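Hey, resending since the last one bounced:
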Amino acid sequence: MIVDAHLDIAWNAIADGRGFLGPPAPRYLISRPALSAAGVGLVCATIYTAPALAKRAMRTRFVYENAHEAHIMGVAEVNYYRSCELRLIRDARELASYVRGWRRGQIAAVLLMEGADPIETPSQLGAWTDMGVRIIGPAWSRTRYSGGTRAPGGLTELGVQLLKAMRRKRVILDISHMADQAVADSFEMWRGPIMSSHSNARAIVPGDRQITDATAAEVARRGGILGISFYPNHLRKSGVTTLDDVVRHALHLARAAGGPEHVGLGTDLDGGIDSRYGPIHDLRELRELPRKLRRHFSARQAEGIMGANWIDFLGRALPAPTESRRASSR
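The structure tokens again:
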């Protein structure tokens, strides 16, 4: 089973009209039939909402001016996933059962909130966990909770409160998009499961959107996973990208993290780009990646990067059924 830890499925459908249930839109790759055909069985499906500052860069009118607007947009995306009848994995038992019975063609998702502004106050977090959210990245650019990409700064006072609430609710922390100071602040206080859903090696592609080797090592020390993004500007500074660039980041992050068991995929395919600029032009080309990984990794290690590492991490990081119910009732 291939696992992809970052896909903006609902955003693409609601903001840009690229629905999930039919074939991919022209020049794009992601849809239920395409994922099924490629052997992808589990994804982290995002709740991404764009702040007003993203309007011009992302060529979208689906933006929010305040937390309440972000909340309404986020709920709309959850409802879109429900309308697709996408199976949501909420706890470790559900994950184990799904993996045991998985057959090619089946798709399930763990909900990941990318940018926490839809949570109007940390006290509202329980409503989102009730809806199925199990992973939260506090930042995209700057949010009310955290400094973010091209927006330096640490955790805000509200961000500290959010992380405390996340720990009580057994929510996983995703540091992708968090500014360096916010990551450092999180390392100081966070004692729960941690991951980086879609950030590549800064040593290869400079910039605050990528993670440093030291950050990769610390996430790994805490038992976390580093997801490799297929976004062209995350793979190389310039020029045409290929799967060889994906392998180069996998190798670098595996070395920085102390082993390939801390590396997985978080492609962000269709997250603002079309297939003309990415390393693959049809999702079935993912089948070529294990062969390329085998140049540097064993068959078992390559299988881990393609999906088994995420399954192992989520099996440990998702709440047990009793914890899930208890957290939702608080």
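The longest strand covers residues 40-48.

Sorry for the duplicate.
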